[in-house]
Amino acid sequence: MRLVVVGNGMAGSRLVSEVRTRDPHMKITIFGAETCQPYNRVLLSNVLAGSSRPDQVRLLDSSWYAAHNVEAAFGSAVAHIDRDTRHVVTDDGRREPYDLLVLATGSDAIVPPIPGVERAIPFRTLDDCERIMRKAEHARRAVVIGGGLLGIEAARGLAGRGLPVTLLHLAGHLMERQLDVEAGEVLGETLAGLGVDIRTGVSTSSVDDAGVRLDDGELIEADLVVLACGVRPISGLAAEAGLEVRRGVVVDDELRTDDPSIFAIGECAEHDGTVYGLVAPAWEQASVAADVITGGKSLYHGSRLVTRLKARSVELAAMGETHLTEEHAEVVRFSHRARGTYRKLVIRDGRLVGAIVLGESDAVGTLTQLFDRGGPVPGDRAGLLFPGLSSATPVADSPTLMPDAAKVCQCNNVTKGQIRACWEAGARDVAGVASATRATTGCGTCRDAVEGIVSWLCEQEGISV
């Protein structure tokens, strides 16, 4: 069996490692357009802020491929799929045969068609990140265009370097897809406290040598302009090969395209009308596809999305149907804008269908579990928003009360029970747990919880660490 994977990013690299875990003998070749080893895009804002080095966000060491008998072709873009002969053809003319092919081509940054946009730098890849950092060393002011998750991370990262930053966003409030109006405003106030000037409801007409020109003629001065205007699936290779493409490459519950020998996963794939832009669904899809490729029977039924942003002085979790109002659901809110705190529950038919937690809180673990499982919501709503306020409310983030089935790492679907089993097998620190389960290697927001569970287990057995 010859497996070829196109795309060596977060989805493709995970698929290869999952397949190799299940089948030590399958011939695997992976092609990556980028010249570097795969890295964690989620952590690029930490690199931009200077809190992490580029080498600290690598997903697989270069020695991993040889050690696991996987051929990795870096800087080798696939230009054509020959479905008749089952070959892929690279830009430099290499032809590689396949029995099964996986497309994990990811997404491209959206570059708005405005005059002078070539003066701006998209924030998407590690190369982009390094270009931004080089220019930031000599910049006096920066502008970030786009107030979604990526734009906020870019602005936070540049502000963390001490650079004055203006964030421009077309919509009326930040992260309008995930947040309601008040949550977006509270987030903006929090970012303003970190040195980011927020301008919402504005449209960019051009990028000039002196900065960014708005539609009304106002010039926002800057010598560094960063684009974070969203992404679009890279699906041209699939379309040219005659595969069904809508917003992304259309796949079924086995992640197969309409050609049963070709799969698609990650940001380029469209499943049941949805294209997912977060890492957790991509890794869930990689696991399912790896099962199917190696003879298993797994099915993918979609992902329940939890958007996380955790940085210095900014902590946010948003999940589900956050925009529903009292007309359609029970809504419970708490807002303390002076402290940068906003919490919201959206409950329908006794189940949590949406939530926003902005500001430091112990509630995220419990709410994520309720949302993920679709379990009934306890009657004490205040106790959900403020764990510890009511003795009847279980504190999911407490290792003592957290059930073994509780999901601790959302990105990698790691439960407390798996962490306990890993600890019992000899892992006595976070690094050991991460190596065995991959917990903490996605967005990193579960690190404190994993550390707490490991410390608690060590305390129970009187083990000093």
Major sheet: order of its strands?
A: 3-2-1-7-19
Name the quaternary structure: single chain
End-to-end CA span: 45 Å
**Uncertain parts:** 391-396
What proportion of the residues form beta strands (DSSP E)? 25-35%
Q: Based on Cα principal axes, name the global outline.
A: globular
Determine the structural class based on helices, strands and strand pairing: alpha/beta
Provide a count of the helices: 13
Structural account:
The structure is a single chain. With 465 residues, the protein is of the alpha/beta class. It has helices at residues 10-22, 44-49, 62-67, 126-136, 149-160, 181-193, 236-240, 279-293, 364-373, 381-385, 416-424, 430-437, 447-460; strands spanning 2-6, 27-32, 70-74, 78-82, 87-90, 95-97, 100-103, 107-109, 121-122, 142-145, 165-169, 196-200, 204-208, 211-214, 219-221, 224-227, 231-233, 249-251, 262-264, 269-271, 306-311, 314-320, 330-336, 341-348, 351-358, 407-409, 414-415. Helix 11 packs across helix 12 and helix 11 packs across helix 13.
